Amino acid sequence: MTHYPVEIFYSPEDAGYIATFPDLWGCSAFGETEEEALTEARSAQEAWLAAQKAAGNAMPTPSTLIPESFSGKFLLRVPKKLHATLAITAKRQGVSLNQYVLYLLAQQQGEVAS
Length: 114
What we know:
The chain has 114 residues and is an alpha+beta fold. The protein has helices at 34-54, 80-93, 97-108, and strands at 7-11, 16-20, 28-31. 41% of the residues lie in helices and 12% in strands.
C-alpha cells in the first residue's frame, strides 16, 4: 500500500484522538488512544482508496512534507506598511524583527502562551 502521511491530534470535545490524512480529503478516524486512532486510520485509508478506485478516480500522490525536509527558513514578502508596523513594534518590545515575527507565528499556532 502507498504510504500517505497521517496526522494525529487530541480532541477535547471528542475525548479521544483524531487521525487524518492531509492527502486524502475527508479520510479520518477516531481512537481513544493514539495507537487506536492510527490503527483505525489505516483501515479508513484502505476503504477510502478502494472507494476512489471503484469510482474510477485518480489516486492522489502522497505528499513529502516531512519536518526533516524543512530548513526553518523562508522568504515572505509583505506590504511596506505592515513591514514598518512590525519593525516598530519589535523595536518597542526590544527584540529583532525576526524574533517578533516568529513569536507572532508561534502564538497563532498555539505554541506559546498569550
